[in-house]
Amino acid sequence: MENKIPIYRQIEQYIMNNIEDGIYAEGMMIPSEEDFCEKFHTSRMTVRKAFDILQTKGILHKKKGKGTFVSTFSIEKNMQTIHGWKETMQMAGYRTRSDLLKIAMEKADEKIAKKLHMKEGDFVYIIIRLRYANDTPILIEKAHLNAFMFPNLLQITFEEQSLYDILKRNYQLHIHHVCQKVLTQKLNGAYAQQLFQEDEATALVMENISYDDREIPLEYTISYINGELYSLNYYVT
């Protein structure tokens, strides 16, 4: 009987099965696009579509001039519970640290104001941190908070503290739920150098808006992620 599943999906599932079975181990280079073309009797474009899907999910990553590799940092995240990045990584057994790249108060542009239910031109705090797991730079996190809601925020040390913990401890505010969007984006300049040690690279981008139980947005965060090293496996209970 003819397999009605699209070939690119068959390739995607074949790779995933081999990863789950340990045939393709973390950090291992998988066969080339040409090899998959021969195995599945298909075009390079079809193989590349399967590769691109797995890259977007952070399961695979490419190294220029070398090949395609299985990503190494794999995190399971329960969609029914809310944890910050630091707690999530530590629960998975990784050592974490952060470099504070910027903390400042600036006027919100139209996009930020809309995300935080503010007026354009109102003041927001911007906190940018470079996050490490086992001393490897994994993501750059850019958080935005309504300055009116969080007096004296600039006086807090952010290098090693969780933002969620700070909101709870210093302002008695609890994250009730988070709306999340994941996409990809080309990076260049400092961010590309800090995450990929390259002048230009494609990053996973995760946008989070965290709300309290009154549907008030408490923070809007953009995380630029090195998808070559970090992937999230979500599950719902």
From TrEMBL:
Q: Where is the HTH gntR-type domain?
A: 5-73
Pfam families in the record, alphabetically?
GntR, UTRA
Gene Ontology biological process terms in this record: negative regulation of DNA-templated transcription
The protein's matches in SUPFAM superfamilies, at most eight in alphabetical order, are given as: Chorismate lyase-like, Winged helix' DNA-binding domain
Q: Does the keyword Cytoplasm apply?
A: no
Task: Name the domain of life.
Answer: Bacteria
List the GO molecular function terms: DNA binding; DNA-binding transcription factor activity
* PROSITE patterns on file: HTH_GNTR (PS50949)
Look up keyword Transcription regulation and say if it applies: yes
Which UniProt keywords are listed? Answer: DNA-binding, Transcription, Transcription regulation
**Known InterPro entries for this protein?**
Bact_HTH_transcr_reg, Chorismate_lyase_/UTRA_dom_sf, Tscrpt_reg_HTH_GntR, UTRA, WH-like_DNA-bd_sf, WH_DNA-bd_sf
Q: Which CDD domains does the protein's record reference?
A: WHTH_GntR (cd07377)
Which PANTHER family does this chain map to? MANNOSYL-D-GLYCERATE TRANSPORT/METABOLISM SYSTEM REPRESSOR MNGR-RELATED (PTHR44846), MANNOSYL-D-GLYCERATE TRANSPORT_METABOLISM SYSTEM REPRESSOR MNGR-RELATED (PTHR44846:SF1)
Name used for this protein in its record: UTRA domain-containing protein
What organism does this protein naturally occur in? Answer: Clostridium innocuum
